[in-house]
Amino acid sequence: MKHANKLNDGKKVGILGGTFNPIHNGHINIAKAALTECGLDEVWFIPNGCPPHKNIEDSITAISRYNMVSATVSREANFYINDIELSSIDYNYTHITLLKLHEAFPNNSYYFIMGEDSLELFGSWRKPELICQYATIVVATRSNNSTSIVNLISDYSKKYNSKFILLHCDYIDVSSTALRNKMISDGLDFEAKIPIEASKYIHEHMLYEDINYSKFASYEDIKADLSDILKPTRYEHTMGVMFTAINLGMRYDVPLELCRYAGLLHDNAKSYTKEELIKFCEEKGIAITKSEYKAPHLLHCKVGAYIAENKYNVDDVRILNAILNHTTGAPDMSLLEQIIFVADYIEPRRYKANRLSEIRAMAYYDIDIATAMILQDTINYLKDIDAYIDERTINTYEYYK
Ligand code: DGI
Ligand code: FE
Ligand code: FE
Predict the structure, then answer these.
(1) Which residue's CA is minimally distant from atom 16 of ligand 1?
(2) Per-residue pLDDT reduced to its tens digit, 281-292
(3) pTM above 0.85, yes or no
(4) Mutate to test the pocket of ligand 1, among 382, 394, 396, 398 (most ligand atoms within 8 A of CB)
(5) pLDDT (tens digit, 9 = 90+) per residue, 228-259?
(6) What does the alpha-carbon distance between residue 396 and residue 71 come to, in Å, rounded to a whole number?
(7) To test ligand 1's pocket by mutation, which of 238, 327, 379, 384 has the most ligand atoms within 8 angstroms of CB?
(8) What is the DSSP string of 324-356?
(9) Is 166 helix (H, G, I), strand (E, B) or coil?
(10) How many Å apart are CA 390 and CA 44, to the nearest integer?
(11) d(CA 337, CA 97)
(12) Residues surrounding ion ligand 2 at CB below 5 Å
């Protein structure tokens, strides 16, 4: 992640603020045009935070928007992310943001970039005269000689005694609202208009997705069932994994309902003996690998996923994969899979493993490192007790270490 910092002082800096819900190629094009046409050194993307008293249920969080923009600009030379508005708990007024930026980086000159639609409303913003004092205003236009824009700019220039620059960029006509609605209705067919890193983020974090839980057995029914089927300590462990997974979901921006179902169901087959697991797989036509014959307890993953799908109607492939991979892990796991893998190891009732407090703390700081630590310790433990190590466990360790 690239943050603007002191090294960025003394520069000509473009400021591109907004909700970025989602960020799209229009934003990138404007920023690139500003960079070249205005001779800027850098463009700072400043996603706005969560306004006080506002709870937008149909939207994504400020953290999601920030992370999505951050993932995108970290790939582009001269683009930076800035969290000044994310970390403010008050309304973000542009004049205040610009003042703070001047205080933090006194030797910069700022170029505030806006689209032509915002220009029409600019006169009604808070303290436009201060904004003009703190920054040159750069206006991205669709058509490069619209008389209404030119007139507006000449009015503002006189009124605020300031300089405006017209940006003649190929301002591709993308609207975040339209993209968002399209994603919600048609799924993820949006790559053409969204930078690749942002679309990966959206996909991995399941943003703008309407996840359908209606077929699933209810949480209460599954819970009641598991408390009958599992030994009390295993049931307690299951609850611990579920809540820990939900916590990690909050930390890593993954839908909590998916974490809840995956956590709840991950060990549902744990009451089966080795013989029963093998028999179950043979009867249902579930393939058993050579290492699973050597270490049949590994089969509680496959059997558990089968039962989740067929007994509890949990037909979401992302949840099923999290159950399937929860013991050995897998290279390049999804975040949900990683969350279940880690939660299984660190839930509060666990106490036997080495370095548990280190791994617990690391889980909330960097889940990839925590994953690698768990695999390293698991492999060492399996070597100590002379157990057969599945190649998936080794491959997962190689991937994350
Ligand atoms: O089901 P849980 O006890 O909650 O946890 P789990 O599903 O992660 O299973 C943990 C056990 O599985 C633990 O004793 C380590 C073992 N394990 C993990 N990878 C391998 C493995 N056992 C063998 N034999 N081979 C592996 O690759
Ligand atoms: Fe397990
Ligand atoms: Fe478990």
Answers:
(1) 327
(2) 999 999 999 999
(3) yes
(4) 382
(5) 999 999 999 999 999 999 999 999 999 999 99
(6) 24
(7) 327
(8) HTTTT--TT--HHHHHHHHHHHHSTT---STTH
(9) strand
(10) 47
(11) 39
(12) 267
